[in-house]
Amino acid sequence: MMEWFDLAQGWLFEAVMQPAIQALGLASQSAEAYNGVGWFLAGVLQLALIAVGIGALERWRPAEAVTDRAAIRTDWIYSLIHRLGVFRLGLFFALDPIVDALAAQGRLWGWQPWHLDAIWPGVTDIGWVSFLLYLVVFDALGYAVHRAQHHWRWWWALHALHHSQRQMGKWSDSRNHLLDDFIGAAVFAGAALVLGAEPGQFMAIVLLTQCLESLQHANVRFGYGPLERWLVSPRFHRVHHAIGLGHESHGPGSRGGHNYGVLFPWWDRLLRTAVFDHPLQPTGIRDQLDGRDYGSGFWAQQRLGMQRLWHALTTR
Q1: Residue 164's pLDDT is what?
Q2: pLDDT for 28-86, tens place per residue?
Q3: What is the pTM for the complete model shown?
Q4: How far, in Å, CA of 157 to CA of 285, rounded?
Q5: What is the per-residue DSSP string for 240-306?
Q6: CA dist., res. 78 & res. 173, Å (int)
Q7: At 123, is the secondary structure helix, strand, or coil?
Q8: Residues 118, 97, 192, CA angle at the centre, nearest 5°?
Q9: Can you give the pLDDT at residue 193?
Q10: Which of 92, 202, 308, 313 is most solvent-facing, going by the fewest CB within 10 Å?
């Protein structure tokens, strides 16, 4: 399969991307463009997997009946932007010269750059061990970022869009404000560069995380049994989206919450934010019940998100 993927990536780059960047005078960016083509193809495969595989699970054991198909169609637009876009990969390469410059200055001061997979030579530099090590570290970072999105008032103003979906489904993971996506992508790309992750390894971690997150948001009513304490399931994550429970655990208007874990619920268990085996609840945000509008289309949602951000930054 990897050989087929490489062949498709090479063909698409030579037939479409390379002539385009040469015509634009950007031939020096060929390496970045080649990786971008790989990201695009991986996104196409993700979309197919979500539509066919996770779609079958939703038809098998749905958590609720779908009544707002317009909202689902809007989430599909977000999925196209998120899965076929180059936010994280683009930032990875955009930040690379900045990190290199800082590392060069650091060496002048006596600091030596390091790679996370080199902390135990002969063990952590083994391919699958290195991958798992980076996966766990990035998941811990994901938990911290997710808590910040809920606890920092200005960031919640953007992240609230993600929780405004009352009909969670397989496309809902990508419903994010573009600025929220940009900030999160910058954090992870910067961390990947500082920790010494290779581009291919970073891409694989992002793709695996995205696929599992799509499953977590699916309209299904099942968990993973005993495995649920080690891997975030759709039921575990649906609690996080529950009105008045997942992100208002300290009362109306609070910015508390439960089940922040991205892939592994370990961090929730360790920091006592985990809730297991809770009955399925309606999803959304409490103030939606009072009539607050989060927008019914892509552009309205983006505009209202910026308005909430401005209000959060200019008022106490």
Answers
A1: 94
A2: 777 777 877 888 888 899 999 999 999 999 999 999 999 989 999 999 999 988 888 65
A3: 0.87
A4: 12
A5: HTBTTTTS-TTSTT----S---SS-THHHHHTT----SPPP--BS-GGGTTT----SSHHHHHHHHH
A6: 9
A7: coil
A8: 40
A9: 76
A10: 313
